[in-house]
Amino acid sequence: MLAGCGSIGEPLYPALNIPLRVNDLTAVERGDKIDIRFTVQPRTTEGMVLTQVGSVDLRIGPIPAGGFNANDWANGATKIAVPTLPGPGAAQAQTSARDFVGKQLAVAIRLGNARGRMNDWSNFYPITVEQPLATPTDFKAVPVAEGMRLTWNAPGQTAFRIFRKAGEQSQPSQLAVTDKPEYLDTSTEYGTAYKYYLQGIHDKAETAVVESDLITPKDIFPPQAPSGLTAAIGVGAVELAWTRNTETDFKEYRVFRSEENGPYIQIAAGLEAPIYSDRKIEPGKHYRYRISALDQTGNTSDPSEPVEVTVP
């Protein structure tokens, strides 16, 4: 008979599953809310993968006089309700700003396991709460020839931040700061979808974010009418010349002719250079000419001022 032998190892204790400490908490006043954001780390204090946050303790409170002590601060701080945190990743919570106007505060959070065992407090984020600003209203974005014109109403406010999200961007980026309730975005591109966000600012306080509709600029703006058209009698031809258009989306010129004061008929298209020789002329006849410009999307300019000649 064979017999085996072995030894019993150290007992394995159940994992505590306490989330790692939050280290990136921020808080900002937006409108009449204090917006708090932080990241739940993907690991536990034991280095294991975090699958669930059991409890959350988020607080905001005055900074104690005579030096900062976490326990003293927590005893005098107000708890903030936090939506359920399903697991690791970015998280957000809000609380009313109106109860804290004029106060210097700190915000911090700690997370725990399902049994309520907590980790350490996060970084303590300071915030001075100002009187809330009114949210700008009637925010509009309208395509114009130069780009996208933004307008809004915000009585009493003197500074604004503008953010823009273009195409497939996941987050908006700051576009400009202005002291007027309007802005012209000249960096748009036709066919790209844009969404704009507006914040009124006052010292360190910000208004609630106002969002525009999703807008895709479409080129509906024709080129300038060609100018400087001249006509000269050459050898067996009328030689036309005019000033070159400068639009970046210019495509071509088209030439129109009227014979003996009749209607204008197109006689040439697809011209890239501002010149044309009309060789289909007859002696003794009177001709009038005018030119139109087209852009890449087919917008047609007004016709140029006409010129006229009589072939000898």
The CATH homologous superfamily of the largest domain corresponds to Immunoglobulins
CATH architecture of the largest domain: Sandwich
Mean pLDDT: 85
- Cα gyration radius (Å): 35 Å
CATH class (first level) name of the largest domain: Mainly Beta
Summarize the main sheet: 5 strands, antiparallel
- Number of separate helices: 1
**In percent, how much strand structure appears in the residues?**
35-45%
Structural class computed from helices and strand pairing: mainly beta
CATH topology descriptor of the largest domain = Immunoglobulin-like
Number of domains: 3
Notable characteristics:
312 residues; mainly beta; Immunoglobulin-like; 3 domains; 5-stranded antiparallel β-sheet; 4-stranded antiparallel β-sheet; 1 helix; 22 strands; elongated; disordered N terminus
